[in-house]
Amino acid sequence: MDFGFLGGKKNKDPDQNRRKKKTIAITQNVINGLISYAKMHHPFEGILILGGERKKTEIFINNLVIPPFSVHGPFYSGFPINELPFDLNYLGTAHSHPSGSSQPSLEDLNHFYGIISIIICHPYEEEDIHAYDSQGREVLFERRN
Ligand SMILES: [Zn+2]
């Protein structure tokens, strides 16, 4: 989304902007996995680590990892981020919102891990999957087989 008009500043080099912007692609397997994991944990939150590749122009998510120290509760699910092994293939996390809210909570933003955060909200269908950057801005993604 472009909020450039808010500052009244014209973007002088839109091409450069486009070059810097990364595409986010998520495989259908990962999408299906997110949906079943979220449904399985309902009415509790479930959380997963997103694995994949960080390329020059693309963030490609093709793997889901169950966190080793996950805690499930009715209002918050998390894991001690500093106990995770350092792994370049970990791109972020995905978690469910049984409340049905698609927005990241303050807690979510304070515990941001990696470069992308996915939220899947109740009733956990494909259109209930939303991706956010570390600023809490929604980012679009494409499906890949
Ligand atoms: Zn959340």
UniProtKB/TrEMBL annotation:
Keywords assigned by UniProt, alphabetized: Hydrolase, Metal-binding, Metalloprotease, Protease, Zinc
Domain JAB: 29-129
Hydrolase listed as a keyword: yes
Location of the region described as Disordered in the Swiss-Prot/TrEMBL record: 1-20
Keyword Amino-acid biosynthesis belongs to the record: no
GO-annotated biological processes: proteolysis
A Pfam match: Prok-JAB
SUPFAM superfamilies given in the database record: JAB1/MPN domain
GO molecular function annotations of the record: metal ion binding; metallopeptidase activity
Identification of the protein by name: JAB domain-containing protein
